[in-house]
Amino acid sequence: MPGARERSAVVGAVENANTMVLVTVATDAELLDRRQVALTEGLPTHPHHHEGSWAVGRYLDSPWARPISLAEALGLVERVREAAARGARACLESLAAEVSAPIVRLAIRACPSLPETAEACIADARAQTVADSVMYRRALADAARARGWDVRWYDRERVPRDAAAAQGRDEIESVLRSMGRAAGPPWQAKHKLAAAAALAFVGE
């Protein structure tokens, strides 16, 4: 129909260490794709929380701890960051090539505020526990922006309500169950959360 809006898609993302669950939903709420991708391979997955902490004397009584200098830990953080950036670009390129509608947006969990440098994150007892997760989320967001996609940050507690409101419903759980039945297993809590995040922003 002349003047009709082109069908597009939104990706909802849920992170778990260096892996991302990506659920892609069209603007008409059709599930287009579901996948889990690793942003890095063959590298430690928590360089701030593990190696960084060992470098400053935390958790040294754990059975997996090993001696490492702060300089070595910071070098490792940078290598993991660069690998995550490459992995994020590659996985989004593959996703965009395989999805039937043009992707316009990525929805990903909001990041807490952190100190500006890796060294400061390692030194902060709270920051070092979340810095790795934030690193991976930022890598995916940066890769999305580089593709021209809009990036939206969601609150995992609020996003089901936001998704329901965006879909003009009182709740979103029935929609997510229907998606899961159509998709087949696995359809776990992380897939439902990613789908809800996508649905919260498909109408924008």
Polypeptide structure, described:
- The chain is an alpha/beta fold and 204 residues long.
- It has a single domain (9-40, 88-201), classed as Nucleotidyltransferase, domain 5.
- The protein is 47% helix and 18% strand.
- The protein has 7 helices and 5 strands, in the order E-E-E-H-H-E-H-H-E-H-H-H.
- The protein has a 5-stranded mixed beta sheet with strand order 3-2-1-4-5.
- Helix 1 (47-55) runs antiparallel to helix 2 and helix 1 packs across helix 4 (127-146).
- The model has no long low-confidence stretch (mean pLDDT 95).
Please tag this protein with its features.
single chain; Nucleotidyltransferase, domain 5; 7 helices; alpha/beta; 204 residues; elongated
Describe, in short, the structure shown.
By secondary structure, the protein is of the alpha/beta class. Helices cover 47% and strands 18% of the residues.
Number of individual domains: 1
Q: Find the CATH topology.
A: Nucleotidyltransferase, domain 5
Shape: elongated
Number of helices: 7
Query: How much of the sequence is in beta strands?
Result: 15-25%
What's the architecture in CATH terms?
2-Layer Sandwich
| CATH class value | Alpha Beta
Radius of gyration: 19 Å
Mean pLDDT: 95
- Terminal residue distance: 20 Å
Would you count the extended β strands for me? 5
Question: Can you write the helix and strand succession as a string?
Answer: EEEHHEHHEHHH
- Give the biggest sheet: 5 strands, mixed
Q: State the fourth-level CATH superfamily.
A: Ribonuclease H-like superfamily/Ribonuclease H
- Helix amount, in percent? 40-55%
The low-confidence parts are: none
* Broad structural category: alpha/beta
Arrangement of strands in the largest sheet:
3-2-1-4-5
